Automatic annotation (TrEMBL):
One record GO biological process: glucan catabolic process
Broad class of enzyme this protein falls into: hydrolase
Molecular function terms from GO: beta-glucosidase activity
SUPFAM superfamilies in the record: (Trans)glycosidases, Beta-D-glucan exohydrolase, C-terminal domain
Coiled coil stretches, renumbered: none
Protein name (database record): beta-glucosidase
InterPro entries: Cellulose_deg_GH3 (IPR050288), Fn3-like (IPR026891), GH (IPR017853), Glyco_hydro_3_C (IPR002772), Glyco_hydro_3_C_sf (IPR036881), Glyco_hydro_3_N (IPR001764), Glyco_hydro_3_N_sf (IPR036962), Ig-like_fold (IPR013783)
UniProt xrefs under PANTHER family: BETA-GLUCOSIDASE (PTHR42715), BETA-GLUCOSIDASE-RELATED (PTHR42715:SF27)
The protein's Enzyme Commission number: 3.2.1.21
Alphabetized UniProt keyword annotations: Glycosidase, Hydrolase
């Protein structure tokens, strides 16, 4: 009897592979799986997107999942143990989705708060980013799920992200952008890496031998697999056939492959642009990884692939705690928070996000949640007895009209609406129906799923009964990548088919949102019908004749939204009137996944719509207004002096409402600390003059001075500094002690102790932050660099705790560019300890007697 795949040595497996099978291992059959080799009983592996949840294998038929807070929120906990638990939590979620690889975490640097994926990254600081990345990965991999840490490296904004070269000094590359990946490799040894879209030193990261083979494999000792980022329409994470294979990229994703086809690779082999030992090496890496995962999870890897969801009181409690611990109290003038029934009888809840399902940023991080507790739900359900809560919208702030699934029923009375797929005849007309599904979303994405039996071009018809709960005029919107029309009760209402206008829907491959106004009566259903085809858009010539051709669209999707048509001035005035007669105003606004998403960068720090105007007027009507900002990064706050309270609530996942209520009502004492600096204006941002790609290059001219390092060097006062966050109690730091240096080489070690005391009146958790100042090294260097932190949890009033922070060679080293190595120079190192980057009351120092250098990890 032949040995099974799990028992066969990898060298033996490689020797048995045919050339076409080796090629198959380096690509994929679809969006989420590797290729199986049935002849040798080699299984496929399934993966899924993160980093704040596990979406599963389909945008179209999504399996509900738990949605955790975004990574900027996670980083604001400054809690490695909690983030380790996040990894454990997500590993169990991944296994329920039949996945053994999570495409997470993202540990790029928040170089600019305007970056479309800024919310996916932990911080502007490389030490905080790397430390928490490692904690996340250790939790994930402790349960046998592989981390695909991403995006390696310098994928820090979306501007021309597949073409632009990130131009930076070697020191900035090493000390800022590679640093968190380096820490993660040292502390957690990820099992896989995902490359960035862009270029470094003129070469795309996915085909960059200096980066993949030189730094990652040889210098850092990484022995897992390296995969590409995914393609979106014309954008792709792989840019050629032989270059990426020779550089060390093991897996092109997703499939079917565009470059690693049998024809192209055989051509490269025959021309000796690619040699068989290199192909064998890539196949060896893939087989080693597949065998490892199959041994850990044979029940999943050889299982039926069924996706499942889970929910329990314990899980909800964890999500709620994680969300609450990440929220940052930025302002509390007069200590009017927390809201208690002894002080407050009437609460006004106002804002565009108050009743919205704003739980995550957009793009790869988006998922279908198992449930959502909105801010309104949480504030009402957790309100103290005797408190009256009323709501006003105040203003809209959406980019696209809100989705309508909660107002839809199928003709049979089920929740949602029916989606039917049709083949096309030779003339491109829909004929035979091949499949039918009930969907719970009016955002339809079809890139990673199609039913069997379709022709190259095809049609879907979406039908449901739309019933609104208020008699009013409603604005409906239809956005499409492809072509579509919308009918209400048989009447053509929106035509986004005949003459289309390009827009930024679906990563810039779709149209603008075409709108129409209809009058709807409360409780009276109307038939909503959308017909969509995957063919490219029609001509916009003036004769109105449909001249669309029959070529399939590269991206496939359609989105339907709608909302009551309001008088904007009246909505603001109604909100001001309610605020004036309330004891406290809670405003919930900020951004949404349509404003902050993969695929584009924000053009401004300003919040959309008339939010800034509304908040200022609310504060004038009632200064006891607390503004709760839902966003993954910084927003402008021109009203900051008009309100007494501000909470940075981030994107907090499906428990956002309960967590926000916990903070505002004082059931949880806020302990979050800003994981990034909040600038007073765009012009203060370190990267302000170098945000976009120019002639194919993004210049990182701020160099090492990213985030707080820039503000301190330029003596610019930010709106709120890095590491800042208030509490309902007060903490006092004392008794700084620094142990003697234990060595003068790579085993360097120093222990720093400090006492944190709760000198307030309620229990709270406090974060101690440690910054290092290097001696004069003859080079321009930031004056302060975070190199350690610790969290004292649940300190009772009147008690104290001694925290210990250990420093190693990473804390004292800089990259010596001419020597191409890390150096720690002899001299005096200053240690500053406090509760934020601009509040460092404890100061000390230690001396390093001898300079030493090191490389690797």
């Amino acid at each position: 009897m032949s040995r099974s795949f799990l028992e066969t040595p990898i060298d033996e497996l490689v020797s048995k592979l045919k050339v076409d099978e080796k090629i198959a291992l380096l690509g994929a059959p679809n969006w989420w799986n590797t290729n199986a080799i049935p002849r040798l009983k080699i299984p496929a592996l399934k993966m899924s997107d993160g980093p704040n949840g596990v979406r599963g294998a389909s945008h179209f038929l999504s399996t509900p999942a738990q949605c955790l807070p975004c990574e900027t929120s996670m980083a604001s906990t400054f809690d490695t143990e909690l983030i380790h638990d996040v990894g454990v939590f997500l590993a169990e979620e991944a296994k329920l989705k039949a996945s053994v690889i999570l495409l997470a975490p993202t540990c790029n640097i928040q170089r600019t708060p305007l970056g479309g994926r800024a919310f996916e990254s932990f911080s502007e600081d490389p030490h905080l980013s790397g430390t928490l990345t490692a904690a996340y990965i250790n939790g994930l991999q402790s349960r046998g799920v592989a981390s695909a840490i991403k995006h390696f490296v310098a994928n820090d904004q979306e501007s021309e992200r597949t073409a632009a070269e990130s131009v930076m000094s070697d020191r900035a590359l090493r000390e800022i952008y590679l640093y968190p990946f380096m820490l993660a490799q040292k502390l957690s040894e990820p099992w896989s890496f995902m490359t960035a879209y862009g270029r470094l030193h003129g070469v795309h990261c996915s085909e960059n031998p200096e980066l993949l083979d030189g730094i990652l494999r040889k210098e850092w000792g990484f022995d897992g697999i390296i995969m590409s980022d995914w393609y979106v329409a014309f954008r792709h994470g792989v840019y050629g056939t032989d270059q990426s294979i020779n550089a060390g990229l093991d897996l092109e994703m997703p499939g079917p492959p565009r470059w690693r086809t049998a024809f192209l690779i055989q051509h490269c082999l025959s021309s000796q642009k690619l040699k068989m030992p290199t192909l064998d090496e890539r196949a060896h890496k893939m087989l080693t990884f597949i065998q490892k995962m199959a041994r850990i999870h044979p029940d999943i890897v050889f299982g039926d692939g069924t996706e499942r969801s889970r929910d329990s009181p314990e899980m909800r409690k964890f999500c709620r705690k994680l969300a609450g611990d990440g929220m940052v109290l930025l302002k509390n003038t007069g200590n009017f928070l927390p809201i208690t029934p002894t002080k407050v009888k009437k609460i006004a809840v106002i804002g565009p996000n108050a009743k919205g399902n704003v739980i995550s940023g957009g793009g790869s991080a988006a998922l279908k949640p198992t449930y959502v507790v909105t801010p309104w739900d949480g504030l009402v359900q957790n309100a103290p007895k005797g408190v009256d809560i009323k709501y006003e919208l105040g203003c809209y702030a959406h980019k696209y009209l809100p989705t309508l699934e909660s107002y839809l029923k199928t003709p049979k009375g089920e929740s949602g609406w029916v989606c039917a797929f049709f083949k096309h005849d030779a003339q491109g007309n829909p004929t035979e129906q091949v499949a039918e599904y009930v969907l719970q979303d009016t955002r339809i994405k079809l890139n990673d799923f199609l039913p069997a039996g379709l022709t190259p071009t095809w049609t879907i018809k979406l039908k449901g009964l739309l019933t609104m709960d208020k008699t009013a005029a409603y604005e409906l919107g239809l956005t499409v990548a492809g072509r579509a029309k919308l009918w209400i009760d048989g009447k053509l209402t929106i035509d986004n088919w005949t003459n289309q206008r390009p827009g930024d829907f679906f990563y810039g491959q779709g149209t603008v949102e075409e709108k129409a106004t209809v009058n709807l009566k409360a409780g009276s259903p109307v038939e909503l019908l959308v017909e969509y085809t995957n063919t490219v858009g029609a001509s916009s010539e003036d004769d109105g004749v449909d001249k669309g051709n029959s070529q399939p669209a590269l991206m496939r999707g359609v989105r339907i939204g709608g909302a009551e048509k309001i008088d904007p001035d009246k909505a603001i005035n109604d909100a001001i009137a309610l605020a004036a007669k309330s004891d406290v105003v809670v405003f919930v606004g900020g951004l949404t996944p349509e404003w902050e998403s993969e695929g584009f960068d924000r053009p401004t720090l300003d919040m959309p719509g008339r939010q800034n105007e509304l908040i200022a007027k609310l504060g004038q009507a009632n200064p006891n207004t607390v503004v709760c900002i839902q966003a993954g990064s910084a927003v402008a706050m021109p009203w900051v002096q008009h309100v007494n309270g501000i909470v940075q609530a981030w994107y907090s996942g499906n428990e956002v409402g309960n967590a926000l209520a916990d903070i505002l009502y004082g059931d949880v004492n806020p302990s979050g600390k800003l994981s990034l600096t909040l600038p007073a204006c765009m012009e203060d941002m370190p990267s302000y003059l170098n945000l976009q790609s120019e002639n194919g290059q993004i210049h990182y001219r701020e160099d090492l001075f990213v985030g707080y390092k820039h503000y301190q060097a330029r003596n610019i006062k930010p709106l709120f500094p890095f590491g800042f966050g208030l509490s309902y109690t007060k903490f006092l730091l004392s008794n700084l002690s620094i142990s003697a240096v234990t060595s003068h080489d790579e085993s360097f070690s120093v222990a720093v102790n400090a006492t944190i005391a709760n000198v307030g009146s309620v229990t709270g958790s406090g974060v101690v932050q440690l910054y290092i100042t290097l001696p004069d090294i003859g080079l321009t260097t930031p004056s302060l660099q975070l190199k350690g932190f610790a969290k004292a949890r649940d300190l009772a009033a009147g008690t104290s705790q001694t925290v210990k922070i250990s420093l190693d060679k990473y804390a004292i080293s800089y990259w010596n560019t001419p020597k191409k190595a890390w150096y720690a120079n002899a001299g005096e190192y200053h240690v500053l300890v406090g509760t934020s980057s601009d509040d460092l009351p404890l100061k000390g120092s230690f001396k390093l007697k001898q300079t030493f250098s090191w490389s690797g990890l």
